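Project outcomes to date are best conveyed with an example. Our students and postdoctoral researchers have been running inverse folding experiments weekly, and each run begins with a structure described purely in tokens. The record below, which covers 108 residues, was selected by the lab manager from last quarter's runs and is presented without edits.
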């Protein structure tokens, strides 16, 4: 079993906090729209202070840019795998691959 150092625990907590802020921002942007969303709404949803938000992101715009960047990364990864859709030998295999691809895209 690996021994956790203070640094590794802090890094994990930092990553978890950043992920919580991003998840909350996505939900708040969906609920209110970007223009009406406030940083206080985002931090309120994940139980953090506004000061904590600004330790991770400079502004509401910066967190939106991060969300869009992550979205594009996921889309690019899914699209990179598109060539495998048509590798099936039967129509059913191609259909299953296409269905899986569409489901993955909808998850993104």
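After processing, the design step wrote out the following sequence:
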């Amino acid at each position: 079993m690996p021994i956790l150092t203070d640094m590794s625990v802090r890094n994990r907590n930092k990553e978890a906090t950043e992920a919580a802020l991003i998840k909350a921002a996505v939900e708040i942007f969906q609920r209110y729209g970007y223009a009406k969303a406030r940083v206080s709404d985002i931090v309120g949803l994940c139980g953090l202070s506004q000061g904590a938000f600004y330790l991770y992101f400079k502004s509401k715009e910066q967190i939106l840019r991060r969300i869009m960047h992550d979205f594009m990364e996921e889309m690019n990864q899914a699209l990179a795998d598109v060539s495998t859709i048509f590798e099936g030998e039967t129509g059913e295999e191609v259909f299953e691959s296409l269905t899986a691809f569409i489901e993955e895209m909808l998850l993104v």
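The CA atoms of residues 59 and 106 lie 28 Å apart. The helical segments are 6-32, 39-46, 50-56, 60-80, 91-107. The training component of this project remains on track.
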